[in-house]
Amino acid sequence: MDSPVGGAAGLRGQRVADEALLDNQDAMAENDPGGMLRMTASAGAQVRESAALAAEANLSALEDDGLPRAVVIAGAGTAARTGEILAMAAGPRSRAPVIAHRSAGVPGWVGAADVVIAISASGHSPEALAAADAAARRGARLVGIGAPDSELQSVVERARAPFIPVPRRAPARASLWALTVPVLLAARTLGLVKVNEADFAETATRLDADAERCRPSAESFVNPAKSLALGLAGSVPIVWGSSPLATVAARRFADTLSANARYPVVAGALGEAGRGRVGLLDGVFGGLVESDRDIFADPFGDDEDGEQSSRLRVVLLRDGGLNADDDTDEPFAVEERRADAIQTLAERRGVRCDVLTAEGGSSLERLASLVAVPDFASVYLALAHGLDPMAVPAVSEMKELSNP
Question: What's the whole-model pTM score?
Answer without folding.
Answer: 0.90
